Amino acid sequence: GATAAVAAVSSSSLIFLGTGCSTALPDTRCLIRPSTPPCAVCSTVLSLPPDRNPNYRLNSSLLIDYCHDDGAHKYILIDIGKTFREQVLRWFVHHNVPSIDS
Ligand SMILES: [Zn+2]
Fold first, then answer.
1. Which residues, in sequence order, are CB contacts of 35 under 8 Å at separation 6+?
2. Which of 22, 52, 73, 86 is 20 to 30 Å from 94 by CA-CA measure?
3. Does the keyword Signal belong to this entry (predicted)?
4. Distance from the CA of 99 to the center of ligand 1, in angstroms?
5. Cα–ligand 1 centroid distance for 40 (angstroms)
6. CA distance linking residue 95 with residue 4, whole number of Å
7. CA 75, 78, 84: angle at the middle one, nearest 5?
């Protein structure tokens, strides 16, 4: 989705990579063949850029950034969907995630 937890360097955190449904939002079916009246959620996605739009949501996915006592980080990925590439581009770079450990 458009939001993600803020990761502190020296602590563990949860990074929400996506909070949408399996089709992600906007649903391409709603964009290609709008209903009458148009779907309120998907049609409003076009009015704001993805990073400022709460209705722009990627597949549900969570990344656990676990910080050990020695400061070393391990990254545990829960669930992965077809929007994973965009999630990596948006959040892995933003949070300096170097790898997935599990
Ligand atoms: Zn829709």
1. none
2. 22
3. yes
4. 34
5. 7
6. 10
7. 90
98: amino acid identity, one letter: P
- C-alpha of residue 54 to centroid of ligand 1, in Å: 14
Read off the pTM.
0.79
What letters, b where the CB count within 10 A reaches 16 and e where it falls short, cover 32-63? eeeeeeebeebbebeeeeeeebebbbbbbbeb
Q: Distance from the CA of 95 to the center of ligand 1, in angstroms?
A: 30
Cα–Cα distance, 41 to 29 (Å, whole number): 12
Model confidence over 42-101: pLDDT tens digits? 888 878 888 888 889 999 999 999 999 999 999 999 999 999 999 999 999 999 999 999
